Amino acid sequence: MSFPFRKITALVKKYRAGLLIAGCGAAFSVNILYHVFPDNAFKKVYQAWSKGEPADLSEKLEKTFQEVLTDLGVSSPKKYSAFAAFGFQPVGAGVPWMPSGARIGIPANFNSTLDDSTGITNRVILINGKEVDWDSSSGTVLKDALLFSPQAQKFAVAREVARLDSGGPVLHATVAPACLAGVCVYSVALKQIFGLYSGPALKRGAVNVFALALGAVSYLLTSDAVCHWMDYKSDRTAASVSQDYAKGGVEFYDKILSRNKTLRTLMGQKGGETYAPSGNLFPSSMFRMKHASYTSRREGVASLLKLDKA
Predict the structure, then answer these.
(1) Neighbouring C-beta atoms of residue 131, cutoff 10 Å
(2) Virtual CA dihedral for 105, 106, 109, 115, nearest 10 degrees?
(3) Are 38 and 93 in contact (CB under 8 A)?
(4) pLDDT one-digit tens code per residue, 250-293
(5) Strand 80-85 with 101-107, pairing
(6) Which of 24, 33, 105, 289 is least buried, going by the fewest C-beta atoms within 10 A?
(7) What pTM did the predictor assign?
């Protein structure tokens, strides 16, 4: 039993640099693959369907999308394309400077306006197995939360474009390989500090386990920190386009918070587990909070609006 273990250990030591590079490359590839081929991985997941066929993006939303690209001054607008997505807020994936470009999914409720809500009220939405009654008090509040002004719609699309245009997916994909390299650095440094290279194998194994645990904690904290930074940065970029965009940003987050509060009530126990009384999402784990809270993002946009007015 000890001979194969020693042989494997010797091979790992001999090719440590090559294995580390290969491992980091694999970790980066796994995280970026979703964005390198957005049509195969992302679009198929979020594509909206109508009568068994992929839904087409309306001319109105295509025009809005092109206006956002122009307002943001995107260097390669042809690398971006939009499609009709399910859900209630825009989503995006892709790397603009890669051959496949970037895809932005825009939901159907963006076709509706404050004066015409037929794009929402003609849809059947089931919550806890029951159809939402749009004429009820909670249904009216939910309907209002799903109706956005043109400025709010543009802000919502712009923040996704800004996130992709700034290389957000690439930055996030580098976290895993960086932390994997960190595990190797932790392990080597601790063994050198405590002189364990000539010590018992059990102690070296314990150090390796500790380094792995430290690397895992580093990944969780760094990954969340990068996501929060990208959230705030994309908001700032979108809100900085003009005061109309900033006002739209405040409205957008106000309505998301209102929607979540209503869903918390309509969904019963599940809603109480998913949404906080403020309208923010509860973290999926006690160890992680993947995205910045909606209230803090709203406050960030509101502070930019105040600075512009000052």
Answers:
(1) 10
(2) 180
(3) yes
(4) 999 999 999 999 999 988 888 888 999 999 998 877 677 888 99
(5) parallel
(6) 33
(7) 0.90
Region 107-125: what's the mean pLDDT? 78
What is the amino acid identity at position 4?
A: P
Q: pLDDT tens-digit profile of 40-83? A: 889 999 999 888 889 899 999 999 999 999 999 998 899 999 99
- For residue 157, the one-letter residue type is V
